[in-house]
Amino acid sequence: MKLGLIGYGAISKHVEAAGLENIDLVSVLVRRPRQEGVLTHEPDRFFAHDFDAVAECAGHEAVRTYGQRVLESGADFLVTSVRAFTDTALFDRLLAAAKASGTRLILPSGGIGALDILSSAAVGGLDSVTVTVRKDPSAWKGTIAETLVDLDALTAPHTVFDGPVREGARLYPQNVNISAAAAIAGLGLDRTRVVIVADPTITTHIVELEAKGAFGRFTFMEDVTVSEENRKTGKLVAMAMVKSVRQLASTLVVAA
To answer: pLDDT (tens digit, 9 = 90+) per residue, 192-247?
Structure first.
């Protein structure tokens, strides 16, 4: 399988280093001028390749800029920056492009588990879904949270947002891919609640997911080590992308 990557940060480098069986990393599209090995900063040179799949690891603007082109080129498109799909027009456009081209828009599990049970429960009907995201205050720097509370002075957990995922994603664009993925898997962006907490008592990222519906009720919690490369994300995100890419060419697929 011929794979392309958009972005060359922590996630892409983990995929590259994994040396996945039956996966040929053909090209990586980067922002800054660079031509070495499989790296290129020229979109036309990147898209000259015949990919089976392209994985976005560069942020929501990359989804907006290149998503439709990927799908129309005949490649499946794996999106890590799920927050991009809070833009309903963009989401609809990419879905239409995938349908017309016979390709797939794939949302990997990324940093959140339990999407399999959540999407299964949605078949029977969901009543409520709440995602609570807890990170240490440094993870919320550079966001609107800085205008709401003195992050450096916090001594106890402080809720900086409690509301619909669509609004939470708008206010915290680099931190809510998890809740956006859960929303798309379940009740949607406007009916899924996200609670965002700056918590000075933790050094990890804690995510809790609670859902109720016709199936009954389930809760899920993960306590994830923070990525050394980017404190806004957990190590699990890169691991999950490696798993998702591996499954594209695997003879055994678990939790599809």
So the answer is: 999 999 999 999 999 999 999 999 999 999 998 887 776 667 788 888 889 999 99
Residue 16 is assigned to a structural domain of this protein: yes
Q: Is the pLDDT at 7 greater than 80, yes or no?
A: yes
| C-beta of residue 71 within 8 angstroms of C-beta of residue 105 | yes
Secondary structure class of 70 (helix, strand, coil): helix
Quick check: 55 pLDDT over 80?
Answer: yes
- Beginning with the edge strand found earlier in the chain, give each strand of the sheet holding 24-29 in spatial order: 35-36, 39-40, 24-29, 2-6, 53-56, 76-79, 105-106
- On the CB side of 119, CA atoms within 13 Å amount to 14
- The count of structural domains within the chain is 2
Here the CATH number for the domain that contains residue 74 is: 3.40.50.720
> Would 140 be classed as within a structural domain?
yes
Answer yes or no: is 253 within a domain: no
Q: What is the β-pairing status of strands 193-198 and 158-164?
A: antiparallel
Nearest to 67 by CA among 41, 31, 106, 40: 106
Q: Would you say residue 147 lies in a domain?
A: yes
| Residues 15, 102 within the same domain | yes
Q: Comparing C-alpha atoms, which of 188, 156, 189, 152 is closest to residue 170?
A: 189
More confident position, 214 or 34: 214
φ and ψ at 217, to 5 degrees? -145, 145
CA atoms within 13 A on the CB side of 42: 7
Say what the pTM is. Answer: 0.89
Element (H, E) at 106: strand 105-106
Give per-residue pLDDT as tens, 158-180. 999 999 999 998 888 777 788 99
